[in-house]
Design brief:
Blueprint (H helix, E strand, L loop, with lengths): L1 H11 L9 E2 L2 E2 L3 H6 L13 H4 L10 E9 L2 E5 L7 E3 L5 E11 L6 E16 L3 E5 L12 E15 L2 E5 L4 E22 L12 E24 L4 E8 L3 E2 L2 E5 L4 E3 L6 E5 L2 E5 L6 E8 L5 E10 L2 H4 L2 E11 L5 E9 L6 E11 L4 E10 L20 E11 L3 E16 L5 E16 L2
Antiparallel strand pairs: 1-2, 3-6, 3-27, 4-5, 4-27, 6-7, 7-9, 7-10, 8-9, 9-11, 10-11, 11-12, 12-13, 12-14, 12-16, 13-19, 15-18, 16-17, 17-21, 18-21, 19-20, 20-23, 21-22, 23-24, 24-25, 25-26, 26-27
Amino acid sequence: MKRVLGFLAIALLFVAQNAWATNGHQLIAVGSYGEGMAGAVTAAPFDTTTAISNPAGLTKLGARADFHFQQLMPKRSVDWTALGGTKTEGGSDKYLIPSVGWSAPINDDETLFFGGGMFVTSGMGVDYDSVNAGFLQINSTGTVPGPMMKGRVYSQYQFWKMAPTLAKKFSDKLSVGLALNVDYQQLSLKQWFYNTDTTTYPSPYLSSMGIDLSTPMGVMGYGFTIGALYDVNDMISIGVNYSSKQSFDKMQFRLQKGNVTYAPTGTGTLFVSRDGTYSLGMDFPSQYAFGVAVRPSEAWLVTLDYKKINFSETLDSLSLEGTYDTTSLTTGATSTASAMPLAFKWKDVNVYALGIQYKLGDGGWLRAGYNSGDSPIDSSNASSAWALPAITKNHYSFGGTGNIGKHWQGHFAYQIANEETVASANGDKISLKGTSVTVGLSYLFR
């Protein structure tokens, strides 16, 4: 126990750094155990967060309740200096992410388990200063470079998942689990630009242009997660998990005339919103994972995971539906439209994770992990990701659990995400780096 406490004390020395640990906009793991193992948990359940990483894992837990609190501290920036503008960093550097879960057998022979919980599994946001964004092509004739613009970029996105879970142990080797997902997501977004030199660049240059969806809108959704766990022998376990696309109602934004004044890339058309209600449909992507856990001795556990997140099925191109006045940027012809495309062009993400755990006798466990994933954003779509710079790739973590008496456990995890920078073909850049810290408390009914 003293070694565990010493390990946690050393870890606390690093908490002052800044962070954002995600694969795309999805957390690499939920809870102290998953964070300490860098997300490599599909074949090695430890606590009730397995309801979302592999529901079959509930059969390995007995009866317990878990509480976790993760603090994200992001450091991100957007850089328009290549366009004649400036660089800005900003926004909140502290985001609290709670999770709670439970599990217990529901029959006498302890082969059927019920549990689940409520978990925050995804989120991000920026809140940049209003600074010069450079020379952007926004005039009605398409002339370059156009006026110097001042930019205001803001976003906040969060995703909650409630996952009541049923898991069945079919034999000493095989377990299967199913979780029904009841979801909630909320989005607010603003990318707005103002002409700072109307004397040099008068009409037909626009005085302002962008998208203002800054009033937060939340909607409910649903889906399912299914998983299986197979113990090949006492040394090797295999886990598989599939989470369906989470389907959501459309978000309803109430806009004033001109809240959207935007020319989407490739359309050659300027869209201007009227007063009214506008709808945005945005689902959460499906994903699957495969994991292997190896126990070379009673004290050691090594886990390997592969995960595929299908961002392209939900964040390739969205549509903001409503009534727009439109103008062709080549002919000047005017018309109306019932929808405007939002081409995020997010790509699918492959994630590889390695976790190592060492058991300290009856005192607890120490953990470390490495997580490497693709970015859904590259140079081809960086200019559409100023408000959602979900580009981190490599993550390192460590953590531990200490037993406190017969029934309680305390948990800790710390994670570092290397800085990543992506530049568009025009030279504007987005950057993101960081860390996170997670603490937890569990009660075991034994």
